[in-house]
């Protein structure tokens, strides 16, 4: 009989976290990462329980998050990236596919994926959302992943068939 994806033990106290960060627009994504790390630390997650993996761009986020969650080593993931609109439809394709892929990954593994992918019209808007006037969406993505993880922990488990 084929086994399904390995799932982390949600009832365990220790939470291992995978943070996947896009290198494209690194000025922005480093700030998102700082916000996510700060929030995870504030939530009591040790730095040694957070693995950070860099990928070339937003399009690669879903594959690496999916692979990490499939390993069974992580309680949840946080995906961080920044896509700034240009003069071609490339922006729409990248944003749509990265969003779809991250959502599918969360459902496939029944594990939270904090969505910290900025989709902005200008670099200024992205910087404002990465620790500027509009807060830090990296911290917000980490917070959402933690809250979702805790909500899932509180749900009853389905009995095996």
Keywords:
161 residues; Rossmann fold; single chain; alpha/beta
Description:
The structure is a single chain. This protein is of the alpha/beta class. It has a single domain, classed as Rossmann fold. It contains 5 helices and 6 strands; from the N terminus they run E-H-E-H-E-H-E-H-E-E-H. It has helices at residues 26-42, 61-70, 90-109, 123-128, 137-154, and strands spanning 17-22, 50-55, 76-84, 113-120, 130-132, 135-136. The strands form 2 sheets. The chain has a 4-stranded parallel beta sheet, with helices on both faces. The longest helix is centred in the middle third of the chain and has 20 residues, at 90-109. The model is unreliable at 1-12 (pLDDT under 50).
**What is the overall shape?**
globular
How many domains? The number is 1
What is the count of helical runs? 5
| CATH-level-4 superfamily name | Lumazine/riboflavin synthase
Mean pLDDT: 91
Task: Sum this structure up briefly.
This protein has 161 residues and is of the alpha/beta class. The chain has 5 helices and 6 strands; from the N terminus they run βαβαβαβαββα. It has one domain: 3-Layer(aba) Sandwich (Rossmann fold).
Helices and strands, with pairings:
Blueprint: E1 17-22, H1 26-42, E2 50-55, H2 61-70, E3 76-84, H3 90-109, E4 113-120, H4 123-128, E5 130-132, E6 135-136, H5 137-154
Parallel strand pairs: 1-2, 1-3, 3-4
Antiparallel strand pairs: 5-6
Helix pairs in contact: 1-5, 2-3
